[in-house]
Amino acid sequence: MNHDSYPDSYIKAILDEVKTVAMVGASGNTVRPSYFVLKYMLSKGYEVWPINPGHAGKEILGQQTYASLNDLPQPPDMVDIFRNSDAAAKIVDDILASSRLPKVIWMQLTVRNEAAAQRAEDAGIKVVMDRCPKIEYGRLSGEIGWVGVNSRTLSSKRPALKSGYQHRGLKSGH
Fold first, then answer.
1. Closest Cα partner for 45 from 16, 22, 73?
2. How many whole angstroms separate alpha carbon 52 and alpha carbon 67?
3. What's residue 139's pLDDT?
4. Per-residue exposure over 85-115, b if at least 16 CB sit within 10 Å of its own CB, e if not
5. At residue 145, does pLDDT exceed 90?
6. Looking at residue 170, what DSSP letter applies?
7. Other CB atoms within 10 Å distance of the CB of residue 169
8. Alpha-carbon span 24 to 53, nearest angstrom
9. Are the CB atoms for 53 and 27 separated by under 8 Å?
């Protein structure tokens, strides 16, 4: 996979397929990017499990926080990594050493580790690096265009009102 440029179809297929997300590096601090992404992904219907050893046993946005991926009730469909590139390599290695493989490993903006990505892909796991699922979801659904950002996508799909806000998911289930 060329991790410098992803086809929209690759990203959309991942966001359509994924139902459960483990967010490594989730924060309860309301000004942290991981908090915003967690809140957004929950609003789109994903089940998100925060991973943060310092908050284990507590809740972030009503979601129980776990100390590690091994503490989750089941393997997640996707692991979203909110840690630096060096830490991402260890997280990928820990995932690969377990018997609980996700379908996708997603590394957040500025997080890239080519060697770790290759190891994950060799194990049959899809990888996305240096991207944010919140931004990609908003771009591909057209929602990001509502604030004047060019999403590079056109749609005649009408947004629906959901919880008092316009909502245009990637498919009817989100």
1. 16
2. 5
3. 87
4. beebbebbeebeeeeeebbbbbbbeebebee
5. no
6. S
7. 19
8. 10
9. no
